[in-house]
Amino acid sequence: MMATPPDYDLLIAGGGLIGSGLALALAHQPLRIGIIEAVPPTTHEQPSFDSRAIALAFGSRQIFEGIGCWSAIAPKTTPIRHIHISDRGHFGVTRLEAAQASLPALGYVVEARVLGQIIYQALKNFSQIELLSPAKVINVSGEGDQMRVQIISQDHIRTLSTRLLIAADGGSSLVRQLLQIPVQRKDYGQTAIIANVATEHPHECTAFERFTNTGPLALLPLGEKRSNLVWTVKNMQVPYLAAVDNKTFLAHLQQRFGQRLGQFTRIGKRHVYPLQLLRSQQQLAHRAILIGNAAHNLHPVAGQGFNLGLRDVAALAQTLADAHKADHDLGAPETLSTYVQWRQWDQRLIAKSTDILVRLFSNNYAGLGLARGLGLTALDLLPLLKRRLMRQATGLAGRQPRLARGLSLL
């Protein structure tokens, strides 16, 4: 007796930028794909001053080129052509220039809502991709060559079957919990305060990373005189900084950042995110795999988190496309292990690098400020080392899948 075919070849739990991006990356493959997302996407909202922003590394631009939607994204971005890195209260500065890396930009800043709208608009062109929303996963169970996924949607419970379940449901992944995959956590005792700010002087496509004794303070260019602020502070400072009026907050920010962009003239709504390093002890289970923040949730220093997840998307999309072309089982352990082995070097390197940066620059141990200043100065004076750093930071190091080279999967 023939086994009943599954409802889907792939079910993606989480329809955020990583989950929907993976669906779009695989859209030209003959695969039936379902996206389970709790919050229906909206396209009618206009981006506002408060819109959350994302920094895309140059390598992420190439992935979106390979997927086929960069031409729609590009006009909505602000390029990062210069990066200014400093250590508050200490000498030493490093300046990274796109021209030094022979790139048109080191990265691009785009509003998250705009990026999501572009991806979902593109997904509408593919009838084999189904958005299940609003819906939430409530249980999972493996049965032979299929995974059963129970969802609740508008008070109605359904059970779906798939060859492979992909958890792209973020750092608090419910699917990861249901699969009983343990995680390693490191609490930094820090919180990120995120908001958009306006400045007296234009940023001229410059991103700033300023290390302070409470954590890094980053400004990402967003529009001519608007920047996205990611200010890391110690947890004990959060109740005060979250509650003070805008004028007082900007005065504190001015004191920490300095006058490189003149006066801060306006701030939007503040958002607060406690910070920790989270890594899943394994990324695959029976016919299930974790990607993006569900697998690794990083400190925002150097803005690597989303870009690392997007590189997961590029590698997994190629792994699954190659497996389907060779008529291999998409959910088989050997298929999923190929992906995990491919990604482990990049994931470990970025997690370790960001962790070291946080620990190195978030304290005032005697003599460490001098060592940091010497390091920043040396980096600024050594072009080979600087180019190597930029290659890693822009996502161009290591083995590159087709999408990361700007090529389609076809």
Helical element count? 11
The CATH fourth-level homologous superfamily of one domain:
FAD/NAD(P)-binding domain
Task: Look at the structure and give the CATH class of one domain.
Answer: Alpha Beta
Low-confidence stretches: none
Quaternary organization = single chain
CATH fold node name of one domain: FAD/NAD(P)-binding domain
Fraction of residues in helix: 25-40%
Strand content: 25-35%
What is the CA–CA distance across the termini? 35 Å
Number of strands: 20
CATH architecture of one domain: 3-Layer(bba) Sandwich
What does the overall shape look like? globular
Average of per-residue pLDDT values: 88
Structural class: alpha+beta
Cα gyration radius (Å): 22 Å
Largest sheet: 9 strands, mixed
Give the arrangement of secondary structure elements.
Blueprint: E1 8-13, H1 17-25, E2 33-36, E3 53-57, H2 58-67, H3 70-73, E4 78-80, E5 82-87, E6 93-97, E7 107-111, H4 112-123, E8 129-132, E9 136-143, E10 146-153, E11 156-167, H5 174-178, E12 183-199, E13 206-212, E14 215-221, E15 226-234, H6 238-243, H7 246-257, E16 264-267, E17 271-280, E18 284-285, E19 288-290, E20 296-297, H8 305-325, H9 333-361, H10 368-381, H11 383-393
Parallel strand pairs: 1-2, 1-11, 2-8, 5-13, 11-19
Antiparallel strand pairs: 3-7, 4-7, 5-6, 9-10, 10-11, 12-15, 12-16, 12-17, 13-14, 14-15, 17-20, 18-19
